[in-house]
Write a structure and sequence with these properties.
The protein is an all-alpha fold. The chain contains 10 helices and no strands.
């Protein structure tokens, strides 16, 4: 798959046409080439974290990985959040129902609300936010939610570390072509 100038425009890239033309040759770039561009990591992630580039299943699993990592790094061990991540993973591989996801999503958002109301520990709120987003991505039937949740989860930790995860997924799916 090639990411073209026209695709970037359709997706609503904030770069000018001139800037896009300096970065992207007429024939486009592979996702791995986009990952290697000398532009801010968040801009590369904006391009890559979408189903046109990475399958929804893999985006959902990335979101779950990142939410789990946020929980570990902050010590957020709320059982509702941990369960939501597990259900999100099971859903991504076809082993959980939408009803299970809806229940896990509700519980994760309850945990998120409780964490953000605890002003004494903002990192807990960030972990809860990432967990809630991961469960939402797995729950949502609209495919774009998987990409959005992966993007939101990525904000909660070092982006360059997350970009390495994205590159790993792209390489696994045969050089960055959509599976």
């Amino acid at each position: 798959m090639k990411i073209t100038r026209e695709q970037l425009r359709r997706w609503g890239a904030c770069y000018t046409d001139k800037k896009i033309a300096t970065l992207v040759p007429e024939e486009g770039l592979t996702p791995l080439e986009v990952a290697a561009l000398d532009i801010p990591v968040e801009d590369r992630m904006w391009v890559l974290l979408r189903e046109d580039v990475i399958p929804a299943r893999d985006l959902r699993l990335l979101a779950c990985d990142w939410a789990e990592s946020a929980c570990r790094k902050t010590g957020w061990n709320d059982e509702r959040s941990i369960a939501a991540i597990a259900v999100g993973r099971r859903f991504a591989v076809g082993e959980a129902t939408e009803a299970e996801l809806a229940e896990a999503r509700y519980a994760a958002w309850e945990a998120r609300s409780a964490a953000w109301s605890d002003a004494g520990w903002p990192p807990r709120g960030a972990a809860a936010e990432a967990t809630a987003e991961a469960s939402s991505s797995a729950w949502a039937s609209a495919s774009s939610w998987a990409a959005k949740a992966a993007e939101w989860a990525a904000r909660s930790a070092a982006r360059s570390e997350k970009l390495a995860d994205v590159v790993r997924v792209l390489r696994k799916s045969e050089g960055g072509t959509k599976a």
